[in-house]
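Record 1 of the preview.
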Amino acid sequence: MLFQKDVVLVSIKWIGERSAIVRYRDREEEVFFTPEEAKRFHQYISHGGDMLVPMNMKTKELFTYVDEPWNEQELEELKEISYQKE
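->
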């Protein structure tokens, strides 16, 4: 799933009750949740979920369950940005 053309890995910058602000490719975007999505997302984060989450760029859907687990330290796109200044 992570390698589909419409899916990007976003970092969670802020989480509210009905939305979250995510950052990817030097862009920030607010993603809005349905009540069910908000409940599922908050449960995911409160149980120690990653602050890096796949998102479909077209539908703005965040995926809190992935069938291909990853190690954040091994992702090529993260190796070079971990110590960059904003």
